Each structure stands twice: as C-alpha cells, then as structure tokens.
Amino acid sequence: MAPERRPLIAGNWKMYKTRPETAAFCAAFLPLVAGVEGRDVVLCPPAVCLETALAATRGAGVGVGAQTMHFAAEGAYTGEIAPRMLAELGVSHVILGHSERRQYFAENDADLARKVRAALDAGFTPILCCGETLEEREAGRTEAKVGGQLDADLAEVDPAELPAVTVAYEPIWAIGTGRTATPETAQETVAFIRRRLRERFGAAADRVRILYGGSVKAANIDALMVQPDIDGVLVGGASLEAQEFARIVRFVEPA
Ligand code: PEP
Predict the structure, then answer these.
(1) Of all protein residues, whose CA lies closest to atom 1 belonging to ligand 1?
(2) Would you report the helix, strand and coil content of the chain in percent, each value rounded to 5?
(3) Fewest CB within 10 A of the end CB: N or C in the chain?
(4) Pick from 212, 214, 157, 217: which is nearest to 187 by CA?
(5) Which of 8, 170, 220 maximizes ligand 1 atoms within 8 Å of its Cβ, making it the mutation to test the pocket?
(6) pTM across the whole model
(7) Which CATH number characterizes residue 229's domain?
(8) Residue 195 is part of which domain span?
(9) What pLDDT score does 181 carry?
(10) CA of residue 234 to ligand 1 center, whole Å
(11) Among residues 100, 136, 170, 244, which one is catalytic?
C-alpha cells in the first residue's frame, strides 16, 4: 500500500440481507468503525436495500455502492438498473464484472467496457473485478486471463481517468471457498496488474487502487494489507457480520 493510494475496504453483500437487516447491520456496524481514519469504507447491499443503507450511513463517512448496473441511460432492459437511477439515489461506487455476474449472468468484456465507461460518466468509482479459475492458475494462465480482462474492460478509459477506477483482483478459486490466496500470491498478481496498467496507461497506474478479494476475514486482513501493492479488499461473506467486518475495516496500518 503506497501513501498516495488511500486504502479502500468494500463489502459485497451479494444477495443477502433485507431492508430491516440492512438497517440493523448499520446500527451495529457504524459505532464500531466511528473515528477510524485513513481509509475509505463502502457497503454494497442488494439494489433494493441501497436507499436504506444510504439513509442509515448518512454523515457517517461510509460510502454505498451498487453490485452491478446496465450501461445504457435507459431502455427496454427488463430487470436492469441504469447509472442515472443509481446516481439519483446517491450511490458512489459500483462493482462491475464480479465473477458471479460473469459466470451466472453472462456478463462479458464487451459489455463491461461500456459499463466502466458509463460508471465514469456517471461519476461513480467502478470497482472492476478480474480473476482466474483454479484450472487457469494451475495451467500457468493467470496473467493471460487477468491481463486480457483488464485490456478489454478498460478499453474505453483514458490515462487521465484511470485513477478514478478501482480494480479488484479476485481469484475465483478463493471466492466463498475459505481458501484465501496467501498474501504473497495475492501481492504477486496485484503487482502484475499494476505493471500491466503501467504498460498501457503510464504513471497513472501508480495512482490506481488495486484490491484483493477472496475469503478475506479478520484473521488474514493485516497480513494482506502489509503487501506493497494491495490497497484494500473486497469482502463477501465476512462483510455480512458487523463485528467481523469492523475488525477488517480496523486493519492495522503497516508502520
Ligand atoms: C466476493 O464476493 O467478492 C468475495 C470476495 O467473497 P468472499 O469474501 O466470501 O470470498
């Protein structure tokens, strides 16, 4: 983690929690992280809970993000949500290209390039996810897979805009499996991501936040955050419980 990149801790609630559960989480969580400085915190609840989360976190210094969105301003896209609808709510971040969206909802790189563009145009911080499967890792194809995703998904981004993008490296084999990449393995791929971005975007790559995601919990957060290129984490399961997520947010700043 470099000083010019402020750490970001984001919770992806996936399809968990109703509106009352969202309000109850915020009531328990916010006092636990009150006064914590030097890091950004974002909750990404299900779409129907965004308004509840925004109301509950107002003035608390905690951002609220969506888990996905469409790229179009409006249109005949049943079930989808447009950037301007999220902007009107007051959302600050949007997760794009999560492996579950890619796997179960056929989200592809062409759509993601348009979504990243639309997110920047709407003033959101896109949290662009990338990562390899276990088979790809074992076949030595991690860099080819992740590099290819980044090239395609950032196709419509200019170097000047790059620092507004956050990248989340999430090895698919570590998501929801309890199997975390070791801090060194995570650092290795995150460093590769930064090199790849530097090749294409130049010095702007040094200002991009790159997160790690995959079975992050209170027990491993400190070891991850000491890694020089890891600027934060995207947390699934462990972000659902207030005490656990608060401990992650309160990771120990390396000396
Ligand atoms: C995620 O959903 O982005 C994630 C990393 O999940 P988990 O922390 O549960 O592995």
Answers:
(1) 236
(2) 45, 15, 40
(3) C
(4) 212
(5) 170
(6) 0.96
(7) 3.20.20.70
(8) 8-249
(9) 85
(10) 7
(11) 170
